[in-house]
Amino acid sequence: MTPxxxxxxxYVEKGFYLHPExxxxxxxxxxxxxxxxxxxxxxxxxxxxxxRRWNIGHPYKMQKIDQxxxxxxxxxxxxxxxxIGEWIARVSSADxxxxxATQLLVKPPGGGKLGAVGWHMDRKDWPFWQGEILTMWLAxxxxxxxxxxxxxxxxxxxxxxxxxxxxxxxxxxxxxxKRLKQLAPHLAWxxxxxxxxxxxxxxxxxxxxxxxxxxxxDCPRIGLAISVRTERSRxxxxxxxYGYTSYLDHPSIAPIIYRRERxxx
Length: 265
Ligand SMILES: O=C(O)CCC(=O)C(=O)O
Fold this sequence. Notes:
The protein is α+β, with helices and mostly antiparallel strands. It has 7 helices and 12 strands.
């Protein structure tokens, strides 16, 4: 970010924005972190189950809990903190921010490539949306260079379609990178890691190429992905949505976490 650039200008230019310093308080983070082992064990305190659990109990693969805000009060409270909505609105310059998906992401240490997430653009996985969709990746603990931080490819949100949207399930990032570079040798490849203090966040557009490598520390890397729509998004009809767009009228399944008040002249 050049000194006079706003978060929104940086986001528009690079396809992501990093806010390494805490946005939310340590006490809220601790409440959420303390709930993770119960969640992993299938204990939910809001009466609903997650929509999907991925690799729970696997020693090395990324463990994920989809729609964690529906099953746990601490996570619901975290996701709906006004400051989260305000930051997403600041970065995207949106008038309305509505959560439609959350994912608790725990990358265990020691698994090498098994913990990696391949280069991908989220829009490929979310064909049921058109327009503005973005994700805030909130660090629940410090994210250091060797723990397999989320990586963004700067400017990739402007790449033409030829440069393939990638695949999150491929774990050989070097091979993917080589292939992408062959497909589009003229495109600049500049990786930026989301190095964050606990409570800090990275914000990325659904069109920004991102992924993450192995966790080479002794501790899990823990994050919460909060995916939102703004007033500039539309649901594509006739496309399988796995339920994600069916609850947009439901205030707690898809909470609106920011609405800009317009004052009539
Ligand atoms: O946490 C990661 O390493 C990947 C997360 C991701 O792909 C996302 O939040 O869109």
